[in-house]
TrEMBL record:
Enzyme Commission code: 2.5.1.-
Annotated family: Belongs to the UPP synthase family.
Subunit structure: Homodimer.
Name this protein carries in UniProt: Isoprenyl transferase
Keyword Transferase: yes
Record GO terms (molecular function): ditrans,polycis-polyprenyl diphosphate synthase [(2E,6E)-farnesyl diphosphate specific] activity; magnesium ion binding
Length: 236
């Protein structure tokens, strides 16, 4: 059995614990985690996904010690710079969702450069959730809709779920079919709150730096065993 699979979203958690378990500083867990991220992007391309959405940095992660935040920003600049040629070769289109204006200049301009360079690529769309919060995304959509209504561009009666979804950061892209969370926590941590309404969930205790293609494949196999009912009765 296999379910249609267009969009996978991943909560890449457990870098800190990976490092701590080895008596290392947290930042080394983040560094090691970047390799797992690169591997996951390649695997997503092999799966011919339309969208792979990765939780890189949440709106709440700004509350971490500034040393850790600075390191994560540095790592982001380094990774985007290093991986851009591969993204081009794999025809990947890079999109960032979240409050990119909160980012320091270096990561913001590096990301903007990669977004511009890959804008016409037609393969998998890689969505990086950076400075992202699901509640903020919903509030932003509400504001955008209110503005259009106020300006007379949209009638209030026309606002339905599909119009609302088009005002979210990914503008009505298919919802994630599968949400994977590493690090063992059974929570959303403010990720894709609207979009995950009917997503299948796969939680693994594996920490993000240890997440291999085999683990990714296991998540897909799990997904393929799920009966997606969307509230309906499929077998009487
Ligand atoms: C995920 O790993 C990466 C980010 C949130 C930036 P963590 O840093 O949350 O790792 P743990 O959960 O503390 O192990
Ligand atoms: C979620 O992980 C955010 C990312 C993976 C980027 P967190 O480590 O921030 O989530 P909590 O604090 O365990 O809920
Ligand atoms: Mg964590």
């Amino acid at each position: 059995m296999s379910n249609e699979l267009k969009h996978v979203a991943i909560i890449m958690d457990g870098n800190g614990r990976w490092a701590k378990g080895r008596g290392l500083e947290r930042f080394l867990g983040h560094r090691k985690g970047t390799q797992a991220t690169i591997d996951a992007v390649k695997f997503g391309c092999d799966l011919h996904l339309e969208h792979l959405t990765l939780y890189v940095f949440s709106s709440e992660n700004w509350q971490r010690p500034s040393k850790e935040v600075d390191y994560l920003m540095k790592l982001l600049v380094e990774m985007v710079h290093k991986e851009l040629p591969d993204l081009m070769e794999k025809n990947v289109k890079l999109v960032v969702i979240g409050n990119i204006n909160r980012l320091p200049d270096a990561p913001r301009s590096q990301l903007q450069h990669a977004i511009d360079e890959t804008a016409n690529n037609t393969g998998m769309q890689l969505n990086l959730a950076i400075s992202y919060g699901g509640r903020l995304e919903i509030v932003d959509a509400c504001k955008a809709i209110a503005k259009e209504v106020q300006e007379g561009k949209l009638s209030l009666d026309a606002v339905d779920e599909s119009v609302f979804a088009k005002h979210l950061y990914l503008k009505g892209a298919p919802d994630p079919d599968l949400v994977i969370r590493t690090g063992g926590e059974f929570r959303l941590s403010n990720y894709l709150l609207w979009q995950a309404a009917y997503s299948e969930f796969y939680v693994t205790p594996t920490l993000w730096p240890d997440f291999t293609n085999e683990e990714f494949q296991k998540a897909i196999e799990f997904y393929n065993t799920r009966e997606r009912r969307f509230g309906k009765v499929l077998h009487e």
